């Protein structure tokens, strides 16, 4: 099997009976555990107006996690750039890279990371900001470059620092952009798998080498729920199904432990939507996870696997990461 880096995506999800402080504390424990296992990086996703997700102040959280670890790369998966001034992001990530040199990643997306009303609250009179996404990435690159030293507007800290940029996508749109810019491409197959294969094919066929990257680099984020037995893993899946139903029906709840499949899953339209979202979800024991995930890696020829694991019990979640790492060794 092709041996590739394995990384983590976290949202600092609030579990039933927990709160935001516990979610952030658990995130740190995940980072420390996966660092010890040899995972490559841990990224946090920017979301807003979501009661049960604690990763809204993504840059702050990145600094917190980096300060509690020592070698794992820490970054954003991603920063939703149209929500921010490129100068502010350059300064924030320049500060993070200065504090934790050689460990900070800047993954960039164009979605608001929330609903349209919240997008307005974030972007105010600049609701067309997503149209400027390519231009704003150019601004970011310029702020980080040594060549910006003669400009009237400069980023301190930030200027002259080597902070890797990654383009995130959940459709084919960003595939073209990542290819044009010659940057690594990370696809959100954990919740939007429908266009995954088409998007990475577009990225690879249109890729133009850059000063940062000589050939395409594809990263795929998938769901992995691993346990000692198939039965235990299947029970873990119930919580993820419930979480997805909450997203689909706009009835979000904290992550809950469920022994049975949620009632809503028996409604054909909901079941179909959930199953579509679970197309890149791998559930099982060490043996079956090895077969399924290694098959996925071989079939798609990805360069890095990013894993997200929505599991209620922290110990079971940490064990899932351990089982996956052993399965792929």
Automatic annotation (TrEMBL):
<dbReference type="InterPro" id="IPR036661">
    <property type="entry name" value="Luciferase-like_sf"/>
</dbReference>
<dbReference type="GO" id="GO:0016705">
    <property type="term" value="F:oxidoreductase activity, acting on paired donors, with incorporation or reduction of molecular oxygen"/>
</dbReference>
<dbReference type="Pfam" id="PF00296">
    <property type="entry name" value="Bac_luciferase"/>
</dbReference>
<dbReference type="InterPro" id="IPR050766">
    <property type="entry name" value="Bact_Lucif_Oxidored"/>
</dbReference>
<dbReference type="InterPro" id="IPR011251">
    <property type="entry name" value="Luciferase-like_dom"/>
</dbReference>
<dbReference type="InterPro" id="IPR019949">
    <property type="entry name" value="CmoO-like"/>
</dbReference>
<feature type="domain" description="Luciferase-like">
    <location>
        <begin position="19"/>
        <end position="295"/>
    </location>
</feature>
<protein>
    <recommendedName>
        <fullName>Luciferase-like monooxygenase</fullName>
    </recommendedName>
</protein>
<comment type="similarity">
    <text>To bacterial alkanal monooxygenase alpha and beta chains.</text>
</comment>
<dbReference type="GO" id="GO:0005829">
    <property type="term" value="C:cytosol"/>
</dbReference>
């Amino acid at each position: 099997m092709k041996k590739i880096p394995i990384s983590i995506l976290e949202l600092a999800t609030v579990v039933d009976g927990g709160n935001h402080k516990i979610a952030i504390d658990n995130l740190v424990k995940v980072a420390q555990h996966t660092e010890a296992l040899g995972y490559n990086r841990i990224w946090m996703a920017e979301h807003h107006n979501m009661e049960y997700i604690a990763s809204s102040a993504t840059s702050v959280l990145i600094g917190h996690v980096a300060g509690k670890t020592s070698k794992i790369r820490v970054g954003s998966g991603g920063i939703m750039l149209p929500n921010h001034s490129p100068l502010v992001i350059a300064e924030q990530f320049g500060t993070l890279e200065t504090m934790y040199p050689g460990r900070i990643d800047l993954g960039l997306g164009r979605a608001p990371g929330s609903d349209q009303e919240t997008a307005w609250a974030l972007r105010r009179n600049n609701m067309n900001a997503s149209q400027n996404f390519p231009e704003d990435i150019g601004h970011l690159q310029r702020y980080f470059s040594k060549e910006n030293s003669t400009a009237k507007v400069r980023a301190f800290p930030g200027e002259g620092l080597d902070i890797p940029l990654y383009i995130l996508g959940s459709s084919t749109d960003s595939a073209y952009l990542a290819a044009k810019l010659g940057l690594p491409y990370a696809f959100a197959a954990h919740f939007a798998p429908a266009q995954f294969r088409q998007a990475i094919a577009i990225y690879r066929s249109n890729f133009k080498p850059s000063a940062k990257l000589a050939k395409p680099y594809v990263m795929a984020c998938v769901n992995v729920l691993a346990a000692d037995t198939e039965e235990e893993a299947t029970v873990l899946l119930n919580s993820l199904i419930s979480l997805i139903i909450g997203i689909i029906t706009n009835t979000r709840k904290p992550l809950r432990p469920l022994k049975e499949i949620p009632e809503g899953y028996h409604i054909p339209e909901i079941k179909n939507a959930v199953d579509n979202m679970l197309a890149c979800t791998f559930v099982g024991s060490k043996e079956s996870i090895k077969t399924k995930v290694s098959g996925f890696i071989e079939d798609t020829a990805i360069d890095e696997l990013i894993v997200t694991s929505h599991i209620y019990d922290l110990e079971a979640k940490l064990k899932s990461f351990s089982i996956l790492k052993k399965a792929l060794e």
